[in-house]
Amino acid sequence: MASTDIITKHLLQSLNKQPSHPLWQRGLFNVLSLLALLMVSACSPLSILSATSGSHYQQTANQAYGKDARQTLDVYVPSTPTRNADVVLFMYGGRWQFGNKDEYRFVADSLAAQGFVTVIPDYRLYPQVDWRDFLMDTAAAYHWVETNIATYGGNPRRIFIMGHSAGAHMAAIVALDPKLRKQVDSDRAPCGLIGLAGPYDFLPINDADVQQVFKTANPLITSQPIFYVGHSMPSMLLLTGAADTTVKPGNTFRMAAAVNENGGKAQVISYPDVAHVGIMLAMAQPLSFLAPTLQDTTDFIHQTACP
Questions:
Q1: What pLDDT digit, counting tens, does each position of 30-68 carry?
Q2: Where are the alpha helices (DSSP H) in 15-126?
Q3: 110 or 2: whose pLDDT is higher?
Q4: What are the beta bridge partners of residue 75?
């Protein structure tokens, strides 16, 4: 999902945007600059984005929420902190098999610039653990935020759980499954769920590596966020790219329909010409012209009243 080849390909595709786009000229310069860095650097594209992001935060790194080396998280407090700030717990993607929180500092920087206390955890991955374990890690990280975020100026009653791709899958199940939260001594749902290109309803599983991740799910439907839709649900903002061929937009539309039919509230925004990686890359300030992901996320948080 986040390999150099895929991200570079997406950036090249971004050059095809029409000059009539209001941010096209600035966006073209930013894309070309990032491509130049990719050509001369051995670092991953996400690491480069993070290294070239702003400094709208004060970071507290590697806080343990469990005993495993990957059960740590980073907290990003806005450089100009406020009391009882809204909180975003961001779960990155990677097919449940790879990823590193350090690569997503650009997401934290953009969210901190909006005044949000932001938390980005690592979590255990397949094949080290079973699929239920990375869900448990997400729930444990959420409970850590509930318990500790006031120390960093965050409001524990206004926690928004956000994820991209596999991260959106995990965030959605934690938001919707009170039994899972109860296993980590958390009994309060998040204030809101923000999903970017989430696989919420992706049966049958066609990719062999993903089949292995969920091979122990019995029945298999229990691995799907849509299975957990019920009558007690946080408000949801579900974002998708109309050009996403990795996690097809139908996942988002089916999830939203199920939530709304069961008395919940799910808003869907579909971005034309945006693919799977681009919807997340747009969180980076230099690439914000790709899609208004950050602005739509900010508006949703500000407009959401928590129970």
A1: 554 554 444 444 456 566 666 666 678 899 999 999 999
A2: 24-40, 45-51, 105-113
A3: 110
A4: 60, 119
Residue 225, in any domain of the structure: yes
* Dist. CA 86–CA 100, nearest whole Å: 24
Residue 171 CA from chain centroid, whole number:
8
Q: Within a domain: residue 265?
A: yes
Q: State the average pLDDT over residues 162-186.
A: 97
77: CATH: 3.40.50.1820
- 175 contacts 224 by C-beta, under 8 angstroms: no
What gap in Å lies between CA 307 and CA 290, rounded to an integer? 33
Q: Work out how many domains the chain is built from and give that number.
A: 1
Q: How far apart are CA 71 and CA 225, in angstroms?
A: 23
User: Of 216, 85, 252, 63, whose CA–CA distance to 143 is shortest?
Assistant: 63
Q: Is residue 44 part of a domain?
A: no
Look at residue 228 in the predicted model and tell me its pLDDT: 97
Mean pLDDT, to the nearest integer, of 95-104? Answer: 94
- Beta strands per DSSP E along the chain: 57-64, 72-78, 85-91, 117-121, 154-164, 192-196, 235-241, 266-271
Rounded Cα distance, 28 and 14, in Å: 8
Backbone torsions φ then ψ of 62, nearest 5 degrees: 55, 45
Its domain, for residue 123, covers 55-303
pLDDT at 23 over 80: no
Residue 233: count of CB within 10 angstroms of its CB: 20
Q: What is the pTM of this model?
A: 0.88
Position 2 in a domain: no
Torsion of CA 257, 259, 262, 264, to 10 degrees: -130
And the tokens for 57?
């935060």
Alpha-carbon span 93 to 4, nearest angstrom = 15
